[in-house]
Structure formats: structure tokens, C-alpha cells
Amino acid sequence: MGAVTEPDRSPKQDRSRATRQRLLEAAVACLADRGWTGSTVAVVAEHAGVSRGAAQHHFPTREDLFTASVEYVAEQRSAALRGLFPAEAAAPDRRAVVTALVDLYTGTLFRAALHLWVAASHEPQLGFRVVELEGRVGRETHRMAVELLGADESAPGVRETIQGFLDMARGLGLANLLTDDGARRERVVAQWTSVLDDVLGRNRRGP
Amino acid sequence: MGAVTEPDRSPKQDRSRATRQRLLEAAVACLADRGWTGSTVAVVAEHAGVSRGAAQHHFPTREDLFTASVEYVAEQRSAALRGLFPAEAAAPDRRAVVTALVDLYTGTLFRAALHLWVAASHEPQLGFRVVELEGRVGRETHRMAVELLGADESAPGVRETIQGFLDMARGLGLANLLTDDGARRERVVAQWTSVLDDVLGRNRRGP
């Protein structure tokens, strides 16, 4: 199928794309584990099994590599989440959707993004790019939440309800940073799913 | 009045207490501005106008100084917030309470705490102490929220509603880290105040 949709792609281009992907995945893992201070292009190149020169060919600066990596992994996770609840299927269980959205903010991607955000708050060369990235990822997550929750944003208060819910998910992610907060989080998610049901009404999506 | 309640305190003890307070306040400001990497005892001592020896007399290690500073400023802010809504007064306006609680998570204290939390996630010597600190501050904030919101935690779901609301406040703080998110935050707070009114019922506190 690849040969049909992208007839001109050579094995060399495939290798280059695979290298790029390995670097992006290694960069997120590195950021999550070591924080911004411990995350350099050299460390990531080594983890990805790529030469430093090749890494710098793909990402000329440290800022390029780490902002691109968070965006790439966020896109992967969005696509995976949409895949769990395909639009053509019947309206999904709202509790499952709420849990899946909250799960976006626990785990490696959130830890990596958090390190990048916090570093950006006192590193001006990073700040501007992270603000743009945060805007893009935030808008995509909001769109996806509206869609999967079956919410009607033309009704008053619905937009702010979803925004507040995503802020809560982000706060739950922060609470999970140093200790496993899973049991408490599950109780909060159960309660807030029923609150969302009251505010948003029953799920309107589906055939 | 100090002379009546603490008759044995000498001018020397007063000076020592004032030095300690200056160090704690300077440490939070430093952490918020420069992050954990840029925050050393020497930098804080200079900002506080205190000798490095005096700083080390009060706080033998860097970890001592910064964890104590976040706890101290959190206690100051809690006391100030309780002062705004004294228990003997009539039931306060819930929107004002929600706004004041959310405000705990914007500004210098939250930025400082966030830097400490994030550093603790990959610095083991800091991790254990920050987990303890987070637990103490979190419990105190929850107690205060229950009290000021006039919530009855014996009713099902109320505890988790308040927890989720405080997670949302934390998430709103994070969203305010790199850009001024005040206008969006105000709309979210307005909507979620009305959601809290529905879940918690009208304010039960007061005469």
C-alpha cells in the first residue's frame, strides 16, 4: 500500500524517516527520565543508536529535537485514542472516554511535556516555541474531547465545562508525578463522569 | 502584644526569626524565577542580605532550605485565605471562595512548588521530602476547601468532587505558567462554580 500512495519513496528515505522516529521517541523518554537539564542531543542520539551527526542533521538544535518530540508523541497518542473510539462506531461509554482522556496526562509523554514546560518558564529561547506547541496540542486535545464526549459546544457553559475537565486531567497528572495516585484518581474520575453526564446530558454521538 | 504572649523572647531571638523568614521568602522567589537548577543557598543568602554562614546555620542543606520555604509560604497563604473568609462571618459567596482557592495555584508560590516537584521527580534526595510536604500541604488545602465551600463530606461523592476541583485548580495553575491565562480561567471558574453549586447544594456554612 505504501508503494501505491507514496510511489517515489526510496529505501534511503525510509531509513531517514525511521531514524527520525527513533530520535523523537528516545527524546521523550529521555526528557521524562532525566528532565531538561539532563537531556542533551548527545544523550538522545546514544539512546536511539544514532550518530550525533545524524541527530544534528535531523534536528539542528536541542530545542528543535525536544519540542518536535513532544509534538510527535502527542500526535501518536491522539491518533491511538481516536482509534479506540472510532467515529463510525456507536456512542462510546462516557466513563471509558473520561478515563482515556485523563490517561493522556499520566505516563511518559506528560512527564516529558511537564519538564519542557517548566524549563521553558525560565529559558527564553525555549519559551516561545513551547507556547506555540502547547497551543497546538491543547486545541487538538480539546477538539478530540468534545468529539469523544459527544458534547454540544453551542449550548451555554459546555465549552468551559470541557476546558475545566481537561484542566482537571492535567492537575491529576501533576498529582501522579511523585507517587502512584491511581486509586484516588479512579474515584475522582468516577464522580466527575457523573457530573459531566449531568452537565453535558447523555451522549449524543452515534448513528 | 508580642511582649505579653512571648515574654521570654530576646531581641537576639527576634533577629534570628526575622533572618529565617527573609531566607524562606527569598528562597521561594528564587525557585519561582530560576528553577531548581539555578537555586542555591548562596544565591538565596545574597538575595536575603544574609551571610552564607548564617543561611547554613538556619538550613544545613539546600533541600532543607527549599522544602521549608515552600511549606512556610503555603502556610502563610492558607492563613491569609482563611483570614479573608473568617469562620464567624456569614456564609461567603461561593464564587469568591472558588476564585480565591484557584488563585492559590497561580503566582509565585505555585511556580516555586512546581519547580520543586519536578526536580524531585528525578532527584532522589529531594523526592521523599517533597512527597511528605505535598501530602501535608494537600491535606491542609483540602480541609480549607471543604470548610470554605461549606461542603458536607458525609454525602456521597462530595469528597471526590472537592478533590477533582482542587486538581482542576492545579491544572489551571499549570496552564498559567507560560502565558497569562486569566481571561479563560475566569470563564472556567464561573462555569465550575455553578457546577459545584449543583453538586454541593447551596452553602450550608454560617449562622
From TrEMBL, chains A, B:
For this entry, the protein name equals TetR family transcriptional regulator
Q: Which InterPro entries match?
A: Homeodomain-like_sf, HTH-type_TetR-like_transc_reg, HTH_TetR
Alphabetic keyword roster: DNA-binding
Q: Which PROSITE patterns match?
A: HTH_TETR_2
Pfam families on file: TetR_N (PF00440)
Where the record puts its DNA-binding region(s)?
40-59
Q: Which domain of life is it from?
A: Bacteria
Tell me which residues make up the HTH tetR-type domain: 17-77
